[in-house]
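Protocol step 4 of 6.
Sequence for Os07g0666400 protein (Oryza sativa subsp. japonica) entered exactly as in the expression construct, tag removed. Do not edit the line below.
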Amino acid sequence: MAPLLLILLVFMPCQTMLFTFDRVTSSPPLFSIISSWWMNPLPQHSSCSTRSTPQDSMVRLDCAQQFRGNGFVVFGSGNTGLILTCEHNLPKTESNGTVAVVVVGFHTGVRFDARVVYVDAGRDLALLRADTFSVPCTPLRFWEDGDVVSGIDVVLLAFFTMKYGQVLVEPGTFPGKILSEPVWDEETDSGEIRSDYTSESGTSGAPVFLQRVNKVVGVNSGALGGTVKTAISVRTIHAALRQWLQPGDENITIEEMLKRIAEQ
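Step 5 output, structure tokens:
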């Protein structure tokens, strides 16, 4: 019986994405945990390995030994890494300013300090920078090939807080669908995507993936109540970075802007 069980596990079919999409409620299903462990490479000591999964690019934010939310690697080269998150994840100083440094941690146990280099409170975005970056991961890419439409399958990948305050060691997956066309505000030059994926406490700042292409379509930011979850759109991220950099080129991509930021 044991050899048969081993054969079934080895030949168990994988999902189309790089990680599984079993629905998560309060904790990830056993198959999601097994497949995540099976497909993740062993920790290496070089920056941004090509043999990595989206889980490897996820970080949990900690400040004063408290879990603050999620972030994810959007650029990595040499010893420099850039991490995107939500501004509201960052704790405030006594003068109501944003803290200068937070601790970022990966599911492998690697932890280091990251500086807050850009904050856009209006769009609820923040960019962190680490110059001692040495993590085997591939920066997550954004979907910049057109607008998303209602009914498309998406999945949230996030660390989250469980029942008694423990933070999940491995990021869990929360599948769902986009509920409507992206909502855009011309005055604030920002917008959001509304979806029906389940989310737990602490998932703000985590990426929402377009399932069919493995690219990020939004950054989980909150909820409107009930089952409607909101995510900061890629168009909003593009607008925020353009406002910061003033590149002049309207067709510049997010990836190109992040590279310029890293070179500064």
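Step 6, annotate. DSSP finds four helices and 13 strands in the chain.
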